[in-house]
Amino acid sequence: MASPHQFLPHVNGLRGLAILAIFLYHLNAVLCPCGYFGVDIFLVISGFFLFRQDVPRLQNGQQSFWGFARRKLWRIVPPWVAVALPVALVCLLVMVHERNVTIACTMAATAFGFGNDYVAFSGSYFNPHVQQNPLMHLWYIGLTEQVYVLLPLLALAVLRGLGERALRPALAGVGVLSLLAFLFLAYGQLVPAWSDAVQELNEHWIRPYYSVVTRLWEPVLGALAAEWATGGGRGVSTGCVPAEGVSAEEAPQQVAGRYGRGGLALLGLAAVVVPMYGCEVGSFCVFPAALAAVALLLTGQGGLVGRLLAWRPLQWLGKVSFSLYLVHWPVFVLWQYTQLWQPDAWAQLGMAFLALLLAWLLWRLVESRCGLWQRDWSRRRRWLVVGIGVHVLIGAWGLCLWKLPFLDHVLPKAVPQSVSGFSHPYLFPPQDSTWSDFPNRAFPHGMRQLGDNDAAPVRFLLIGDSHAWHLCEGLHRACAAKGNLRGVYLDAALLPAWNCRISFLQGSAVWGREQGEGLLRWVAAHPEFEVVVVSVHWWLRLQPEPIRDWQGNPIPPEQFQAAVEAGLEETCRRLQALGRRVVLLLDTPKYVEGDPFEGVLMRTIFHQPMPWVGVSAQQHAHNTATERAMIARICAAVPGVQQYDLAEPLLIGGAYPFLDEQGRFLYRDTNHVSTHGSRRVSYPLLEFLLPLMAPEQAPLQKK
What we know:
Elements: H1 9-27, H2 37-59, H3 65-94, H4 97-111, H5 115-122, H6 128-131, H7 139-161, H8 167-187, H9 195-204, H10 212-215, H11 217-229, H12 250-259, H13 261-278, H14 286-299, H15 303-309, H16 312-319, H17 321-338, H18 345-365, H19 370-376, H20 379-401, H21 405-410, H22 417-420, E1 447-450, E2 458-463, H23 466-469, H24 472-482, E3 486-490, E4 502-504, E5 509-511, H25 513-524, E6 531-535, H26 557-577, E7 581-586, H27 596-605, E8 614-616, H28 617-623, H29 625-637, E9 642-645, E10 655-657, H30 675-693
Parallel strand pairs: 2-3, 2-6, 6-7, 7-9
Antiparallel strand pairs: 1-3, 4-5, 8-10
Helix pairs in contact: 1-2, 1-15, 1-16, 1-17, 2-7, 2-11, 2-14, 3-4, 3-7, 3-17, 3-20, 4-5, 4-20, 5-7, 8-11, 11-14, 12-13, 13-14, 13-15, 17-18, 24-30, 26-29
């Protein structure tokens, strides 16, 4: 713990501003559109204190690196463990099994120090699946731990190998390299020549928002600010012994005197506040905000800005900032979960009050006592407690990751698989030697067999994204019921849009020229594919990354629909030229006002009355009007292309209910069918396909 004379009120106030921005952004993004810039401010502050207090002690031998690591670990681990374990236990009782696996993996990754890397590759920051993980925010813990390891080791290596004069240039060089890596990965797709390389790196290697490689420039800014503030001197007890002729207190005064202390501080405060509270998501303003944080660290001690930052509410927020960061996100997610993701203004006030109260309790009972525990407890006792906590997290992770059968049946609580139909089986690929020419490089996710009779001929091909995959359960059973028929599903495959390149599944699947031409060559080589069935829901989902044509040039968002429609039409023409029949699927109803599965689950758990949940025929027609119009135009432009409406078998009593006549779930979320829904849809779909393949086939008999 820092001694009292090391306390800097203006830095604590800056912490308060940063956590307030994050808090408001997560509470309601309208209140602070770029509140996540607060994380950038925290990183700058972390670098500042590392080089103001810790690095000088390491250099002067006042503490060993392992002592420093133990102190930081003891400062970080107990608070986040105190939050993560209760949250995980609560979620185990109220959330679906697959989400609990994600939660447990997040805990385990954080325990090992790479929570940021796990969250990075579990989905986009703005993806609803990631946003509904109550421990998603622990990614920052992993990033902080990595900074606490890398920067001190770098400083010690430079100081002992090259001397003190080399430290600032070395820090500046590392910061510049990190910033260039961030700019390349975050914005390199805007340069056509770099587009493919950047996408490959982002998809499989590094996500610039989360990685220490691309975020290290921010703590380096703080480190350089500390070097400047102390005149580059190496401290003893305070960690900031001045350079020759300049005291630690006089160095910032000199800087301020040169540039105008008050004006620079006011400009810095404005440049921190305005981007966080006034810019749009994805703004470039993170760069001036980080630089402004440096200006405030150097010049914010006195004057009007110093008094503003010393404002008591900001000081309180700064004091509990770490605890508030740990507490607020689980509170918000779980509260919204119980409100079916639709909290009103009063609910948001309740969320805010509860988060602030729990943050104060966590600070009072855990965080503020970590220093006392470190001083009073023996090393063995401290490491025993931390070790047990980490191993408990790892055990929970393993328990869920193994997907033990009893968990899969009892979670979600009181909703068995026989009712929910949540877990779709993952089918195996066909074993025929005739598929040796399958273009694995273009389609790394492979193909799946529909139907269990390996001697039966393959007659149709199904392609699409997860909406096509959720038809596989029903089609597999329908083909098995027929007995002498098989199909193939091309896993994680979009239809090639011939003039644009699209990525999905967090970048693990890509459609481009290679995939499109590879698909057509493969279909041409296999005349047994009499019918190609295409699920076209995917085109409605604009990707967060820029859409580009195959030459790497950006396609404006307003032209994306036209580009995909033109590609779909061209694909239908080329498939027909190969002698294949093409069927386009109109998608199942969509629940656009919240996840009905989660709603039914919560009402079941809390024994609330179950209202009718469904989509009216009018709502469905409105939701799919654009999709239907597009498919109608394609069918008119390419005679012979047929369409099939997947929604028709789900129409019950003039509407599309969430539950069927036996009370089973027809859907597993907002727009994916359950296994029960898949079977209900797929039998009539296969009956529709049979005359296109072999008119003499008898109708199916449902099992």
